[in-house]
């Protein structure tokens, strides 16, 4: 939460008639708590922000299901049911290393990304491949499968790991930056990570 109108009250860890939101995923292995924002009167405004630099996508559900990876769920109307059972089972079976949340119901859903968000609209039978670290969300009408990039040599030498292949009809969303890759590059650039960078010295006793 960044800001809100004076008429808006906040309650943590309950459900009701307000806007349910967290700064990170409520399920899928992350925070188990959620903030509920309720307007005490006619209306109110709440401003939300993701914890990392990126976009926020507003999606309207009308009884269908949207699957969002862990870390992508930001907020939703209280009528949206959030279930992680599907994601845990399917991720283990597919080897995707993802725990997607199943968002069901009618109302607004807000998903966050690291970097910009791109939309892919797939026709029936049309496929598209997205790096595992860049997958954000997809509609329930879209089928998916996880696989490695080429053979073992390609995986090791290219630095690429798992990819997700989506087959339409339906829509897929992906982010333009990968948080895992970004984190690894920061760690490698930091001094004193355990490797001699040429500027240190050893003391022998």
UniProtKB/TrEMBL annotation:
InterPro entries, sorted: AIM24 (IPR002838), AIM24_sf (IPR036983), Trp_RNA-bd_attenuator-like_dom (IPR016031)
Gene3D superfamilies associated with the record: Mitochondrial biogenesis AIM24
A Pfam family the protein falls into: AIM24
Protein name: TIGR00266 family protein
Species of provenance: Halococcus thailandensis JCM 13552
Phylogenetic lineage: Archaea, Methanobacteriati, Methanobacteriota, Stenosarchaea group, Halobacteria
């Amino acid at each position: 939460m960044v800001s809100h109108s004076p008429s808006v009250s906040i309650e943590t860890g309950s459900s009701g008639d307000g806007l349910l939101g967290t700064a990170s995923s409520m399920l899928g292995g992350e925070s188990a708590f959620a903030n509920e924002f309720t307007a005490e009167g006619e209306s109110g405004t709440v401003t939300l922000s993701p914890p990392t630099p990126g976009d926020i996508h507003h999606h309207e559900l009308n009884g269908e299901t949207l699957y969002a990876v862990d870390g992508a769920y930001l907020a939703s109307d209280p009528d949206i049911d959030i279930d992680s059972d599907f994601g845990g089972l399917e991720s283990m079976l597919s080897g995707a290393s993802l725990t997607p949340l199943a968002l069901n119901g009618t109302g607004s859903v807000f998903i966050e990304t690291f970097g910009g968000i791109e939309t892919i609209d797939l026709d029936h039978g049309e496929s598209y491949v997205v790096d595992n670290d860049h997958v954000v969300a997809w509609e329930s009408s879209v089928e998916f499968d996880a696989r490695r990039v080429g053979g073992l040599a390609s995986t090791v030498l290219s630095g690429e790991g798992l990819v997700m292949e989506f087959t339409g009809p339906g829509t897929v969303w992906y982010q333009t930056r990968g948080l895992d890759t970004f984190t690894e590059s920061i760690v490698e650039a930091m001094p004193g990570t355990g490797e001699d960078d040429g500027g240190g010295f050893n003391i022998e006793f």
